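Entry under discussion copied across for reference:
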Amino acid sequence: MKFLHTSDWHLGRSFHRVNMLGAQAAFVDHLVEAVREHAVDAVLVAGDVYDRAVPPLPAVELYDRALHRLADLGVPTVMISGNHDSARRLGVGAGLIGRAGIHLRTDPAGCAEPVVLADAHGDVALYGLPYLEPALVKEEFGAEKVSHEAVLGAAMDRVRADLAGRPEGTRSVVLAHAFVTGGQASDSERDIAVGGVEAVPASVFDGVDYAALGHLHGCQTINERVRYSGSPLAYSFSEAGHRKSMWLVELGPAGEITAERLDTPVPRPLARLRGRLEDLLEDPALTGREDSWVEAVLTDPVRPQDPMARLTARFPHTLSLAFEPEGRRDEGAASYAQRLRGRSDQEIAEDFVAHVRGGGTADEAERAVLRAAFEDVRAEDGRLETAR
């Protein structure tokens, strides 16, 4: 059985104020064509369909067209909500939509209710685990701790229990949206604290044949059976080295996995340039970057005059400009955003404690208080979203 594994569409998101809706529509076209060309048996969308809980209308319209086109192909689609999606909004009409072969899995309570497909070798059970906010679902799963590992582990226990009651030889696939230990993050993922405490081990997915993951934007293999598809488009310059793609996964008769990457359309390549302004303007080696979206970091000791105007004369698609003068070593030279890049809310709060103490770090009890405070805030945000 063949699956097309994708995730993190982030419909409605822009790239440094550039509207990406046209590029997102081109990706949907490519997805539909890939389903046809490769005779795919099911499409797996592992969360973050939208970029925010209340997406703009053009993004909703594109999503609607995508669902209709996938349904018209007669190929089942299993889609889960991610941390950017509003699970309740995304799941509206799930029962009716399911009759058209589009299976939306947004309710944590239904994580052990699979979509069951069949081929010549028997049944394949596809389980959709929506993004699980620990503080909101701890009671649902009876988890011992408020942590991603605890709630995802409890959800997977339900999956394994359901699978154990199915006919011998039933193969299994799980969709999940989480930060798994060993994954490489980029600047464009938000929340789910990628700093360590919220990571879950890949072993949480033991017992299933394939785990189709979403959240991290780089396509990557955690192990043969646990993979991220990554986002189909770049949403930060930290993804300049990414090869954007989807996984074409074939599940064999005994659960064997073969996987092939299918490249997705690139609206415009990304380039990260660094150096003195005059050097960047004159360097012949940069000729191939003139049609790219450009992030430039100028290292001139003195800030040059009209740097953006001069840069765009050669690189008309320059979107980001920063200054890091040569020889300056004081910590204040880095922008606030640069100093926070890649750090979780918990780590930033602990850094603040160290700063106000003049170097003394937070102890374990204080870290626990901070962790509980962030969990309470996330839980309250979730309750407010549910009430809307």
Summary: The chain is about 30% helix and 20% strand. The mean pLDDT is 91. Residues 362 and 368 are 10 Å apart (CA to CA). The first strand starts at residue 2 and ends at 6.
